[in-house]
Structures are given as C-alpha cells and as structure tokens.
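Training component of the fellowship. As part of building independent skills, the fellow (R.M.) carried out the full modelling exercise for a liganded target. The chosen ligand was iron/sulfur cluster. The inputs are recorded below so that the supervisory panel can assess the work.
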Amino acid sequence: MEPMDSPLLEVRNLSKHFSQRGGLFAALARERGTGVIPAVDDVSFDLHANETLGLVGESGCGKTTTGKAILKLMPVTAGRIRYAGRDITVLSQEEFRPLRREIQMIFQDLDAALNPKMRIESVLREAVLLCEPTLASGALQARIYELLELVNLKKNKLSSFPSELSGGEKRRIGIARALAMRPRLIVADEPTSALDVSIQAQVINLLRDLQSQLGLSYLFISHDLQLVELVSHRVAVMYLGRIVEMGPAERVAHAPRHPYTAVLWSSLVEKMSREGAASSVAPSAWGVFDFERPTEGCRFAPRCPVYAARGRPAQCTDASQAPRLAAADGGAHVVACHFPLPAQAGPG
Ligand code: SF4
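Fellow's submitted model of the complex:
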C-alpha cells in the first residue's frame, strides 16, 4: 500500500522509441542516422490523488503515446512507471490486470469506442460485469442506473444504439463505461474533440464534478491550450517527445518561461488549434519561424524565436548540452531551456 502523501502515479525517465513514423520525428531520425524515432524521450512526472495534470502539445508530440504506456497498451523502451507504489513496467499483463481496472482511458474517437451494434444498456452491463462479475441482477440494474445518474443521462437512453445518441451523449456513455470499473486514475485523451463548444463545457464540468465526488485523478491529454488550463491543476508541455515546461496551470499559461510554451499560447497558434489546424500545419507554414529540421541539443531550436534573436548560440544545438528541466520560479515550475524567458509577475 502506498504512503498517504505518495503520488498515485510516478513516471520516471520514460522513453518509447519506434522504428518508423512520419512528420517531424522522421526528420529527427534521419538527422541522427539511426532510423529510431524517440516518440517519448526521458519523460518524468508525478500525478497525485484528486489531481489533474494536463499534457499539452501538438499532434505527434508523444502525449498519447505516454498515456498508452501508462495503461500498458504498449511496451516501453526505458524508464519506470509506478502506480499506487508498484512498478507496473515489470508486471506481466496477467499481474497488471487487477490494477488495470483502476486505470481507465477515455478514448478520443467517440464512434470507434462504442460498438455500434450494442444498445447502451448492453454496453454498460458488459462494463459493470467486467468489474463485478458476481453481481446479482437487481444490483446490476441499480449499478447501471447509478452510472447513468453520475453522467447525467436519463434512463430512456438505455435502449438506444450509439448512432441514436448525440456526440455529447456518446461521450457521457464513454465516461460511464470507464466509471463502471471504479477507477482511481483516468487518462482522458482529447475527451472533448469533435464536440461543440457548449457541449465541451458540459463535459469539462462533468469531469470536474466526478473528480470532486469520486476523488479521481486525471491525465488530461489535449492540444487545446485554453481547455487544458481550465481543467488542470498542473500542466506539462511536450515538444517532440520531451517535456519542456511543467508547473501550476496558471503560471505555465500566463507566465511561461519556455519559448515554445509562449508560442503555444500566442493568439496565432490558439486560433489554429481551435480550428484543428495546428495538428496538421507544417512548422514552416507558421510563417514566423525559420523551420529547418529538428536538431540535436534543443529540438525546438529551428523554430525558436529566442534562438534566432540571440544569433543562434551554439549551446542550443550542442548534443552534449540538451537542456534539462530545472526550477524556473521555485520548485513547482520547471523549464528546459538555456535562455528561459524572463520571469513575470504571473498568477499564483
Ligand atoms: Fe530556444 Fe535555446 Fe531555449 Fe531551445 S534552449 S528553447 S533553442 S533558447
């Protein structure tokens, strides 16, 4: 049993390498001449009970891969993941199964996540019985009603097929199915994508309410910067597989120290993110930066306005001096940059 003040989740020096992948990572692999793509590279963070950590970055930065590694949906290349005091990287799938119920994922793709041929009642019954296989029929029905109530859906939805539900209702069913397993940790991967703004707000409020009621921890993965700030206690910013800044949500959002975070929060990129364009726009199309190719040392150098403004200092692209996370404004706020932005009198 973990001590009371220990993190629920501890990720240490996590790396996941692939042999093939497109986009910026492929350029990095070519640059290194190895053919190996470090989708997640030496990532470390903690997540406490009843806490939300937002993991933010552009599509392909490694945030979903990090989430999948925590669920043991793929083997890791290096590093350790401790959940509730146990190193799950060394557990077999069989040994992991009892813990797996406590770690649930809300998947991004609403339609792929629900079997189109199953009525909602069957979806929820299946999930409840996976967790509590000996439940008598009365208790099973009561649990299904309880789950519906938790996600604010009416009982008449039980007879519906997924295709008869709105996007928001499908998302609520996805959340109810995760709750059926009585989780402590939920990895929520772009949980509001493809939803209208008003429905997004409802889903966010629901997740917050559930956190208060059930003491859940969330790893909230999103490219939507405004959303991440809204929902998270702390935010970690990922760029090309590495965390480049991490700290209290308001400070990272409004007093960033890493040039990439500042770019992310700029109105230009926020607008592109809202339109779903940030994930598909090549860096050269940003128009602001001189994109060449990912480099050794700091991977953000080809796009970094500070690097350009300082006359391209060699330190930034020196493979032996890759910037490491270090305290920025006191212990809780860390940044990986040789020339961090000046401290601001931000919130908190
Ligand atoms: Fe920019 Fe250099 Fe900092 Fe990288 S280390 S973000 S290139 S200033």
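The panel noted the following from the submitted structure. The longest strand covers residues 37-47. Residues 259, 298, 300-301, 304, 306-307, 316, 323, 337-339 surround iron/sulfur cluster (CB under 6 Å).
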